[in-house]
Amino acid sequence: LSERLGGVFDRLTKQGSLSEEDVKTALREVRVALLEADVSLPVARNFIKAVEKKATGAAVTKSVTPGQQVVKIVHDELVSVLTGDEDPGKLKIDNPPAPILMVGLQGSGKTTTTAKLAKRLKERDGKRVLMASLDTNRPAAMEQLAILGSQIGVDTLPIVKGEDAVAIAKRAKTQASLGGYDVYMLDTAGRLHIDQELIAQAAAVRDVANPRETLLVVDGLTGQDAVNVAEEFDDKIGVSGVVLTRMDGDGRGGAALSMRAVTGKPIRFVGLGEKMDAIEEFHAERIAGRILGMGDIVSLVEKAQQTLEAEQAERMMKRFQKGQFNMNDLKMQLEQMQKMGGMESMLSMMPGAAKMQKQMGEAGMDDSILSRQVALINSMTKKERANPQVLQASRKKRIAKGAGLEVSELNKLLKQHRQMSDVMKKMGRMGKGGAMKQMMK
Ligand code: GDP
Ligand code: MG
Question: Which residues form a coiled coil (predicted)?
């Protein structure tokens, strides 16, 4: 696909400005790209119309080719459609105990996502969370949540045989109040297909719990079906956000665009695997890049410039010149990378990166490594960050434990830091950091 688009854009490159014909030709390919990414037809059509308006006659800036310009307009439009809440990862959980209702089809990942979010709330926000399974159809489903709960150290409501979903919801509410919990999460039963009984039950639970958030969990691989499901749930139950699961697979993320365009509901989180840490808040840029699936150096450069604030860069450079590069510097760099949408998205913007990405995947390097490394640095004291040499076995153990990770992960991080620090020192010696300045431009 990238190749096909590449061809069109190469032809565009030879010319000076964006004619209507150029844009039409390029957008025909973009439309195919969208459909291949599972974006529904009407959504793709509307999207193309919007881009066409913006692109035709747009002034071509000197620094980019017309082809790149169209890509950028398409990319920006995707991001603007996909962007929902200001802060998708922030759940409304004031006024404890705050109920969160999880709904969705069977197998979409509700139970897994419930536990992932509970872990996140516990670790990031220091919240006390109670989880309750309302899946009375399948006793194993209740067990599943209890097992996950004990894995992540989050309480689950004791299972009482013979209760119906509404009764469990009521009990969860009472227990959450009495037990002084900040949040209680209701993991509902699903069906293979949407039906009236399922909806009626979810609605009854909603009326009892009065949830602050109702999160619809949708399998990111289902593509177009996802839109119908989202519409139905939102219509009948009211949804405050969507969680897209299985985005670690080869789903192209088109469902995200369709769902957002059709229901107007924000995508809040993205599930990236079966492990309890495999969730992150939604990044419009990442999904946009994925939907397009094409090399785009222009936006990579742009984003790098935006996120690396000039002042920070200046301060960092001064330190590097003196041969100083501590954990705070490393943390800043890791966070910078996260802001840019992570390694994968940075890679995906470089042409021919698919292979590299695959190699990284095989080497076990994925984006969760960034957040794990930041977590490790976060659990160091100020002194340790400024001076990582002081880290002895007992400190290492404490830090790893604080981040919920193994000491071996911490050792990897320290090694990486040492290597980078060596490089920085060398560069610092190279004429007043001229090389560094070049790099950061
Ligand atoms: P539920 O029926 O909606 O509660 O779905 P479950 O939470 O039981 O998940 C069904 C299966 O999907 C389980 O095997 C999960 O481990 C798996 N799963 C859930 N979320 C993800 C994800 O983001 N990525 C991957 N690869 N698997 C997931
Ligand atoms: Mg379940």
Answer: none
For the CA of 273, the nearest atom of ligand 1: 24
Neighbouring residues of the ion ligand 2, judged by CB less than 5 Å: 110-111, 141
Quick one: 282 and 299 in the same domain?
Answer: no
313 shares its domain with 347: yes
39 in a structural domain: yes
pLDDT of residue 76: 85
343 plus 432 within the same structural domain: yes
Q: Which atom of ligand 1 is nearest to the CA of 270?
A: 23
Q: How far apart are CA 316 and CA 330, in angstroms?
A: 10
Per-residue pLDDT band for 370 (boundaries 50, 70, 90) equals: confident
Answer whether residue 143 is part of any domain: yes
> What is the identity of the amino acid at 127?
K
ipTM: 0.99
> Do 222 and 358 reside in the same domain of the chain?
no
Residues 6+ apart with CB under 8 A from 71: 5, 9, 292, 294, 296, 298, 299
One domain for residues 376 and 435: yes
Contact (CB, 8 A) for 209 and 101:
yes
The model's confidence at residue 316, banded by pLDDT at 50, 70 and 90, is low
**Ligand 2 centroid, distance to 143 Cα (angstroms):** 10
Which residues are 213's β-sheet partners?
A: 100
Predicted local distance difference test score (pLDDT) of residue 329: 79
- Considering the domain architecture, whether residues 53 and 169 belong to the same structural domain is answered as no
> Which pTM does this prediction carry?
0.65
pLDDT score at 440: 47
Q: Hey, whose CA ends up nearest to atom 2 of ligand 1? A: 107
The alpha-carbon radius of gyration of the chain (Å, integer) is 24
Question: For residue 219, what is the enclosing H or E element?
Answer: strand 213-219
Owning domain of residue 237 = 98-289
Is position 111 annotated in a ligand binding site? yes
* pLDDT tens figures, 177-219: 999 999 999 999 887 777 888 889 999 999 999 999 999 999 8
